[in-house]
Recover the amino acids of this structure.
């Protein structure tokens, strides 16, 4: 916790700011290591304050006292609390988390806080891009549980289940195996619906053809994300070709990914393979980062000039979607390392047919 505060303090000094007001739930979770969606932190270049209301004050005092001055927050007095710190620490420039602050809150702070407000932009989000060992362990555990759910569902899936049944089963198994929640709304789309990259599972029996399942477990705030496409019934030659093209694109990208690589180059490796036969059918990026949020930067996008760093955790998820017909996506979750990747996703990838 203290290491992260120090990193943020260095960023404040670089930005020539005196302090930052942390107001977003995710940043609070990251810097204080516990959830209080209504809590605030004020980090100055030298000190750190945690403003936590009565519901959380006991845990805050217990867990934060070493790194933070803990103040009991009375929500109607937020501006007073902030101004007391502004006075005590002689804060002239206070950064705010503009990426996720309601405009009304910004206006209130601007009118009532006795410091010049400036925008923090992606300052905290950038720190979150490189995960430490503890964070990697949590994502790894989340993905382990996600793999268990896939293995389980494979054994019990029958053509007379509905898409919703499949989604519910995946979520139930993840919870039973230690997940705190699902990472995001589970996708289970079959037949013609599989051409919708983010389709919603319906009350319909599984259609013959591709069944795409995109799901993940949440563990201690950290997300997992995986996708597998299987076939209900027998895949014809055209479906096999499409599936194998997605798989080759994914394997090729996994093979070249490592620290120092340009994000757009990673996307290109997979996209070139798909575009040869299915141009226009891979309409999203190769992947995104995952951590305390399901979608974080950097993105493996054709438009990204970011360089991958050891400790980034990204998805690798090429897909081919043929409008009105079907679609297929295969997604793994990997940790970027110096010369390769650590693939956290252990589920098989050869085409599975279920009768
Ligand atoms: Mn994903």
């Amino acid at each position: 916790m203290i290491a992260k505060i120090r990193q943020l303090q260095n960023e404040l000094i670089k930005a020539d700011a005196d302090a930052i007001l942390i107001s977003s739930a995710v940043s609070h979770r990251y810097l204080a290591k516990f959830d209080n969606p209504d809590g605030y932190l004020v980090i100055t270049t030298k000190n750190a304050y945690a403003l936590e209301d009565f519901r959380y004050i006991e845990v805050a005092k217990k867990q934060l006292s070493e790194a933070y001055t803990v103040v009991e927050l009375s929500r109607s007095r937020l501006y007073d609390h902030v101004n007391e710190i502004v006075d005590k620490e002689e804060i002239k420039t206070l950064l705010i988390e503009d990426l996720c602050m309601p405009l009304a809150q910004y206006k209130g702070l601007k009118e009532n806080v006795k410091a010049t407000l400036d925008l923090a932009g992606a300052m905290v989000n950038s720190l979150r891009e490189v995960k430490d060992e503890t964070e990697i362990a949590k994502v790894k555990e989340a993905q382990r549980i996600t793999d268990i759910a896939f293995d389980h569902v494979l054994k019990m899936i029958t053509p007379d289940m509905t898409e919703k049944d499949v989604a519910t089963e995946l979520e139930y198994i993840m919870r039973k195996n230690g997940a705190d929640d699902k990472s995001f709304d589970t996708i289970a789309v079959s037949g013609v619906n599989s051409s919708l990259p983010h389709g919603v599972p319906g009350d319909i029996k599984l259609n013959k053809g591709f069944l795409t399942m995109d799901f993940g477990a949440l563990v201690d705030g950290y997300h997992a994300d995986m996708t597998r496409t299987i076939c209900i019934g027998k895949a014809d030659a055209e479906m096999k070709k499409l599936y194998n093209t997605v798989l080759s694109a994914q394997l090729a990208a996994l093979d070249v990914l490592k620290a120092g690589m340009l994000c757009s180059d990673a996307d290109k490796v997979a996209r070139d393979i798909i575009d040869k036969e299915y141009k226009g059918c891979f309409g999203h990026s190769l992947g995104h980062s995952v951590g305390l949020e399901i979608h974080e930067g950097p993105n493996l996008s054709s438009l990204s000039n970011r360089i991958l760093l050891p400790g980034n955790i990204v998805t690798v998820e090429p897909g081919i979607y043929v409008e009105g017909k079907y679609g297929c996506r295969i997604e793994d979750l990997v940790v970027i390392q110096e010369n390769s990747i650590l693939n956290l996703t252990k589920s098989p990838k050869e085409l599975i047919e279920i009768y």
Remarks:
- The two ends are 51 Å apart (CA to CA).
- Residues 2-127 form a domain with the Creatine Amidinohydrolase; Chain A, domain 1 fold (CATH 3.40.350.10).
- Residues 225, 288, 315, 317, 331 surround manganese (II) ion (CB under 6 Å).
- The chain has two domains: 2-127, 133-354.
